[in-house]
Design brief:
The chain contains 19 helices and 15 strands. It has helices at residues 5-11, 27-30, 73-85, 88-97, 116-127, 144-152, 165-176, 192-200, 202-206, 216-227, 242-265, 281-292, 304-312, 320-323, 342-347, 403-407, 412-431, 446-456, 469-475; strands at 107-112, 131-136, 156-158, 185-188, 210-213, 235-237, 273-277, 296-300, 316-317, 329-332, 353-356, 375-380, 383-387, 393-397, 441-443. An 8-stranded mixed sheet has the order 9-8-7-10-11-14-13-12, with helices on one face. The chain has a 7-stranded parallel sheet with strand order 3-2-1-4-5-6-15, sandwiched between helices. NAD(+) binds at residues 280-285, 301, 404.
Length: 490
């Protein structure tokens, strides 16, 4: 007979119920709790000390960085090496162009998620001749060990998991504002870096040779600047390139939405009612995954074309108010603001899970929940219970910020596609002859999109069919592409 007595005695040594944690618990403390394998490696002894207050140097004696703990560099290097195994196309581009140094003289200031995958991109840019200074576009998505590895390798990186809002802007400013170094290229994700340089350093902004932006939010802000006649540099809209939209936005989110929700809530999706706000590429990916696991999925949309696509894919298109009382999960992916308001949150059922898959934290009105009558209870890293006076609780993930990169990881292979696209966009803008690009927002040339795709086909042992001369003439195409017109939507 198996005896459990000793085990029970050992178990009862630990408290069975934890008290509620106060709302004033600091962001930096709560966001560095490690829960899953996706969380950054964290030395708990460092949690109480802000990286801004530390004096750190790498093995070369440089202190031109600010990370959580430079001692994590070796661990971060292993993470980067693992990512490189599934980013063969980007590594291939690095090897092909390394001798030419197409980015020699480029001084790139970047603001993206700092993960093992983006580290491979940053080191590729450096290998191609660029000097790079980097900050994080999300206060929760930085992998501390990866930031340390980049700092050890000589990259001026200013980022750590769990930054405060003040830290976030301080890190961006440290990247831009350095004596004797002036950026001439921007790689942005969300538009915060571009906005900061435009507002705070207008003379630097005017001398920028090109901006590459990869998010819906950031692209929207660029188009606003362009429309107002205030965009004085050419910009490349990578977000709407085929290799970003159809792969990162669709296939990446199709896998990472489930990963993020499972790691944070352990929820079972079969039979759950889920409303997804927005049926763009991100929404399509999320819905496909949820439907495959047996969830009942509703869609909200403003665009009749996207709404019709949702209907044809078997989803019911509704207004949020019509289903808010009955759904178990609410997911936003619109790129808009105030999609889920306090009124919606008040009407949700007990234990409803609320999260965001869009870049910006503006989609869910989290600020409206910071009121005296509501109690916040941190239950695990990136998971808060917001408790109403009647006892109802809503499960809020990542405080309304990007779920997949805040709470889990994303597929490396898909990020290779996006990173290769970004690298080529930077090379194109930096080396373009004067006059090719005016002060406007451009899409990546179709030929470049096709080249990015072709670099990734060998991973699948895929073999393209080649047109004969007669077939190419019949279709009016060059045998080597581009194979589709710019207006073609895949």
């Amino acid at each position: 007979q198996i005896q459990f007595a000793d085990d029970m005695q050992e178990f009862t040594k630990f408290p069975t119920k934890t008290g509620r944690r106060s709302l004033s618990r600091s962001i930096s403390q709560s966001s560095t709790d490690s829960y899953s394998s996706a969380a950054s490696y964290t030395d708990s002894s460092d949690d109480e000390v802000s990286p801004r207050e530390k004096q750190q140097t790498n093995s070369k004696g440089s202190s031109n960085f600010c990370v959580k703990n430079i001692k994590q560099a070796e661990f971060g290097r292993r993470e980067i090496e693992i990512a490189e195994q599934d980013m063969s196309a980007l590594i291939s581009l690095r090897k092909r162009a390394q001798g030419e140094k197409p980015l020699a003289g480029a001084k790139i200031v970047g603001c993206t998620h700092i993960t093992a995958q983006t580290a491979v991109l940053i080191e590729t840019l450096c290998a191609l001749g660029a000097q790079c200074r980097w900050s994080a576009c999300n206060i929760y998505s930085t992998q501390n060990e990866v930031a340390a590895a980049l700092a050890e390798a000589g990259v001026a990186v200013f980022a750590w998991k769990g930054e405060s809002e003040d830290d976030f802007w301080w890190c961006i400013d440290r990247c831009v504002n350095m004596d004797g170094w002036q950026a001439n290229m921007i790689l942005d994700d969300g538009g915060d870096l571009t906005h900061w340089v435009y507002k705070k350093y207008p003379n630097v902004f005017k001398k920028i040779r090109g901006i590459v932006e990869e998010s819906v939010t950031g692209v929207h802000r660029l188009y606003q600047l362009s429309k107002a006649g205030k965009l004085c540099v050419p910009a490349m809209n990578v977000n709407d390139s085929v290799t970003k939209q159809k792969f990162d936005n669709l296939y990446c989110c199709r896998e990472s939405i489930l990963d993020g929700l499972k790691r944070t809530t352990d929820v079972m999706f079969g039979g759950k009612q889920v409303v997804v706000c927005g049926y763009g590429e991100v929404g399509k990916g999320c819905c496909a995954a949820l439907k495959a696991l047996g969830a009942i999925v509703y869609i909200t949309e403003i665009d009749p074309i996207c709404a019709l696509q949702a209907c044809m894919d078997g989803f019911r298109v509704v207004k949020l108010n019509e289903v808010i009382r009955q759904v178990d999960v609410v997911i936003t992916c619109t790129g808009n603001k105030n999609v889920v308001t306090r009124e919606h949150l008040d009407r949700m059922k007990n234990s409803c899970i609320v999260c965001n898959m869009g870049h910006s934290n503006t989609e869910i009105d989290v600020t409206s929940l910071r009121t005296p009558e509501l109690t916040w209870e941190r239950v695990r890293s990136q998971v808060d219970h917001v408790i109403w006076p009647d006892g109802k609780r809503v499960v809020l993930l990542a405080e309304g910020r990007l779920l997949n990169l805040s709470c889990s990881t994303v597929p490396t292979f898909v990020l290779s596609i996006t990173a290769t696209t970004q690298a080529l966009a930077l090379i194109e803008l930096y080396n373009a002859p004067e006059g090719r690009y005016k002060q406007d927002v451009y899409l990546l040339p179709k030929k470049m999109d096709e080249y990015v795709a072709s670099l990734h086909l060998p991973s699948f042992d895929a073999h393209l069919t080649e047109l004969t001369d007669d077939q190419a003439k019949y279709l009016g195409l060059n045998k080597n592409g581009p194979f589709k017109p710019n207006y073609y939507s895949y």
